[in-house]
Specification:
By secondary structure, this protein is mainly alpha-helical. It is about 75% helix and about 0% strand.
Length: about 260
């Protein structure tokens, strides 16, 4: 019987095709190129930082092969949300590259982010049940994907707002800056409080913020974006190190106390 764990491998291949085929066939520009078509927004990570998708895709493929061959609690619990996230990503990438409508991009990213967080939550509930190479892969996959999608959603918010207001990429730059940091800050608090204790979420979020820092260092004149974003990223990492994270244990403890 066909289950979600059986479709992960085809979806993994579909993601790769969706990400690279339009650019390779010169049908559409890359995601980074599309985002800078009308100018360079200060909240956008520098192009090379989008290479994190390669690491995410690799982890997805490894887990997909494992899930195809092993019917375990891990593969069953993560298969559905990862399948939905992978399918959503495979649809969103060509939509972003070919259509390039900022509002549609944001609306498409929200449900992908939701199911990715669900996958991270489900893995976090299994974190204390022993370790293995495939569990490490699942941790990397769900953590990096949920962290990077948080950044993607955050930078899509000001882009969609400027589109609706008919503004250029460097208009209302202060609103753009604070909206990105507000989304990342709020999402990170919710994530560490209720979703997962993984450090890989912070790795992806910090990578995205560093990309914004480098973008403003090398390509724009918004120096304050550089320093404020750098300070915010360091503060985010410090808070995770200093206060830790509860993740899925919050819900677990609540259920046990009833």
């Amino acid at each position: 019987m066909m289950t979600y764990r059986h479709v992960l491998a085809p979806i993994a291949m579909l993601q790769l095709l969706a990400a690279y085929l339009p650019t390779a066939l010169e049908i559409a520009p890359s995601i980074a190129e599309r985002a800078t078509k009308d100018g360079i927004p200060p909240e956008l990570p520098l192009g090379p930082f989008f290479a994190i998708w390669g690491v995410i895709f690799l982890a997805y493929i490894v887990f997909a092969i494992y899930a195809l061959r092993h019917d375990t609690e891990l593969s069953r619990r993560l298969a559905k949300p990862l399948a939905l996230a992978g399918l959503g990503t495979a649809l969103w990438m060509p939509l972003q590259q070919i259509v390039g409508n900022p509002v549609l991009d944001l609306l498409a990213l929200l449900p992908i982010g939701w199911v990715t967080w669900l996958a991270a939550y489900r893995f976090d509930t299994m974190r204390g049940l022993g370790g293995s190479a495939i569990k490490w892969t699942a941790d990397v996959l769900t953590g990096l994907l949920s962290g990077w999608l948080t950044v993607a959603i955050a930078i899509s918010v000001p882009r969609a707002g400027r589109y609706l207001l008919g503004q250029g990429p460097t208009d209302s730059e202060w609103i753009s800056l604070w909206s990105v940091l507000a989304v990342v800050s709020t999402a990170t608090w919710v994530y560490k409080r209720y979703i997962s204790r993984t450090i890989w979420y912070y790795t992806a979020a910090a990578w995205g913020l560093l990309g914004i820092v480098m973008n403003n260092w090398l390509r724009t004149d918004f120096g304050y974006f550089l320093w404020i974003t750098l300070a915010f990223g360091l503060w985010l990492i410090y808070r995770r190190w200093a206060t830790g994270a509860l993740g899925s244990t919050t819900s677990y403890i609540a259920k046990k106390s009833q």
